[in-house]
Specification:
The structure holds two protein chains of two kinds. Chain A has three helices and four strands. Chain A has a single domain, classed as GMP Synthetase, Chain A, domain 3. Chain A is α+β, with helices and mostly antiparallel strands. In chain A, strands 3-2-1-4 form a four-stranded mixed beta sheet, covered by helices on one side. Chain B is an all-alpha fold. Chain B has one domain: Four Helix Bundle (Hemerythrin (Met), subunit A). Chain B is built from five helices and no strands. In chain B, helix 2 packs antiparallel against helix 4, helix 2 runs parallel beside helix 5 and helix 4 packs across helix 5. Classes of the chains: A alpha+beta, B mainly alpha. At the A-B interface, strand 3 of A face helix 3 and helix 4 of B.
């Protein structure tokens, strides 16, 4: 008579290579929350012309790209952005900020920024 | 050394200006990109030439260039135009399906002209008329 395999309650089968790879990817995908996110969210959202703000951090170099999305380019926005940008750079000198303005032209806003950029706020 | 490097950037700037003239009627959107790079070389020539401004033109970093521009109050107005031109050229380069409008075209030409009107005389003064 064939012996039945007995799995002790404390034993767990070892994860397969795929399972380990998925777990690793999930761990990597836990997004780091940066201290400057809330200041950007609150200050940039006060500027009516801006529909959304996206963030893209180059991990390792600490270069932070901030994308302000507007329906179309407009010159008056730049003067309005100068003060919050300068303030942010003063508060977080350990990061290198690069500020961008992108026009979404009424299309999907995420198409106007790098594909891995994170949405900080949208209206 | 600085003047040699500045002269190289100035030469590149003039080369791009000539290219703009040829390209404008063919593809206005990509001409905007060339306008941005022309302004970048003009401003870089000035920053390299200006002895009291620390700027490594080899770093290729827009951040470093922006910081150097910030240290030059005489470029306060030019830096806004430069930024507008940079954003517009990025839209052309990176945003798929971006519609380059007639207003974008006219704005990009105006911005380049404004930058030229501010930076060219400053650079000429630094070169002291000896280069050309």
């Amino acid at each position: 008579m064939a012996k039945k395999a007995v799995i002790k309650s404390g034993d767990r089968p070892k994860p397969t290579l795929t399972q380990r790879s998925v777990a690793k990817t999930m761990k990597e995908n836990v997004r780091r929350v940066y201290p400057f996110e809330e200041p950007i969210r609150s200050r940039w959202s006060r500027i009516k012309a801006i529909d959304a703000v996206y963030l893209d951090v180059e991990v390792g170099t600490e270069v932070v790209h901030v994308y302000s999305l507007v329906p179309e380019f407009r010159s008056d926005l730049y003067r309005r952005l100068e003060s919050p940008e300068k303030r942010l750079e003063g508060e977080f000198p350990e990061f290198q900020f690069e500020f961008h303005v992108r026009a979404h032209q009424g299309r999907n806003r995420s198409f106007a920024v790098p594909f891995d950029a994170q949405l900080l706020f949208s209206r | 050394m600085n003047s040699e490097l500045a002269a190289e950037h100035d030469r590149q700037y003039h080369k791009l200006l000539a290219f703009i003239a040829k390209m404008e009627s063919v593809d206005p959107s990509w001409t905007c990109v060339v306008k941005f790079y022309a302004s970048m070389h003009l401003i870089t020539a000035y920053l390299v030439m200006k002895s009291n401004t620390r700027f490594d033109s080899d770093s290729g970093s827009h951040h470093e260039r922006r910081k150097a521009i910030d240290r030059c109050p005489e470029l306060n107005v030019a830096k806004r135009y430069y930024r507008e031109l940079k954003d517009l050229s990025e839209a052309v380069r990176y945003v798929p399906g971006y519609i380059f409008t007639a207003k974008n075209d006219s704005d990009s030409s105006k911005r380049l002209e404004s930058i030229r009107s501010i930076v060219e005389p400053l650079l000429k003064k630094l070169f002291g008329g000896s280069k050309r």
